[in-house]
Structures are given as C-alpha cells and as structure tokens.
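Long-time lurker, first post. I've been practising inverse folding by hand and with some scripts of my own, and I keep getting stuck on stretches where the structure tokens seem ambiguous. Below is the full token string for one chain I'm working on. Before anyone asks, I'm not after the true native sequence, just a reasonable design that respects the backbone. If someone could post their per-position residues I'd love to compare against what I wrote down in my notebook.
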C-alpha cells in the first residue's frame, strides 16, 4: 500500500515556511508546531482495512509512530529512550495509555515500528506493537469506542512537559490487511 515515495505519493505536504509535513532528502518529515501538541497525517488510502498491520521506519526527537481506527482510535508511539505505548486518541490528541512498556533493541537511527490493529467480535480490537522485530506491547479485547474504523497514518507528539518543535522522519511505510 502507500509507501513514502515522494511528493506525488498522496501524503500531505506543506509549502509554507513554517510547515508540519513535508518531504526532505527522500524521506517524509513531520513537525509539531509551537501552537499544537501533535501532528497527525492520514495515509493516502481509499479503503482502509478493518484489521491491519502497519510498518514504518522512524527517527524522532519526540514521540512518534502510527495510528489506526481514525483520530479517535489508537496510537502506537515510541520515544528515543525506548518508552513505547499504545494510547487512545481523542480527536487526534493522545489520551491515556492502554499499555506502556520499554523497547530494549533500539537503534541509533531508523527504528522499525510494526503495529497490529485487529478487529474482533463484540466491539473489541486486539492491539500489538513491535520495535525492530521485538514484541513490546499488546492488549487483547480492547474496547473500540464509537464510530467507524476511519483512516490510519503517521503521527508525532510533543511529550508532556517538553518544549521545542519535536520532529519525526519516516520511511518505508506499509499498511496491509490481516
């Protein structure tokens, strides 16, 4: 599905001097602007599967990762210190953590995040996150919340009590049905 292969790939890009999403050096970069706490970008996919596996390489100085089930779904986030979490989203804002853990096999650059968001019967979803092939987090039978599945995509978040303009650089995004 939608890789990050240049400005014609359909991913959001901004052309203003102060931008939150753009291509730089053949990679996709997101910034958290000073007036916001996060930047979230939908993948350019017309038909998002209800059950899916996403994968992306990421380098970040904030919290960054992928999300599923729209801006009221779930975020799969990784910090540079290895803190990983699956969190609920509320209108794109990261709310309480569903589950928190620590990735131990971190690389200096280009950590690979994989995230599973698998719809189950009874309005629940199974969630799991891997970092560089290591299963770090999972949550079974998690209540979905209301609404349709919605888009999936990328996000970067300014951690609580942090300052500055956190950014994340993404490469090799994929999304597939499971």
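-- Answer (accepted) --
I ran through it position by position. Result:
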């Amino acid at each position: 599905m939608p890789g990050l292969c240049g400005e014609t790939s359909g991913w959001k890009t901004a052309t203003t001097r102060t931008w939150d999403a753009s291509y730089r050096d053949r990679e996709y970069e997101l910034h958290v602007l000073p007036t916001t706490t996060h930047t979230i970008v939908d993948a350019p996919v017309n038909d998002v599967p209800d059950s899916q596996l996403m994968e992306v390489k990421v380098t970040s100085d904030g919290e960054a990762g992928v999300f599923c089930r729209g801006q009221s779904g779930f975020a799969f986030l990784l910090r540079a210190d290895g803190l990983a979490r699956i969190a609920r989203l509320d209108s794109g804002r990261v709310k309480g953590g569903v589950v928190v853990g620590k990735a131990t096999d971190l690389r200096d650059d280009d950590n690979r995040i994989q995230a599973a968001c698998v719809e189950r019967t009874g309005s629940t979803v199974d969630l799991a996150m891997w970092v560089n092939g290591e299963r770090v987090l999972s949550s079974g039978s998690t209540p979905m919340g209301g609404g349709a599945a919605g888009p999936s995509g990328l996000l970067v978040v300014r951690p609580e009590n942090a300052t500055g303009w956190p950014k994340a650089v993404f490469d090799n995004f994929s999304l597939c049905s499971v």
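A couple of notes from the structure itself: The chain is about 0% helix and 55% strand. The chain has a mean pLDDT of 90. Happy to go over any region you disagree with.
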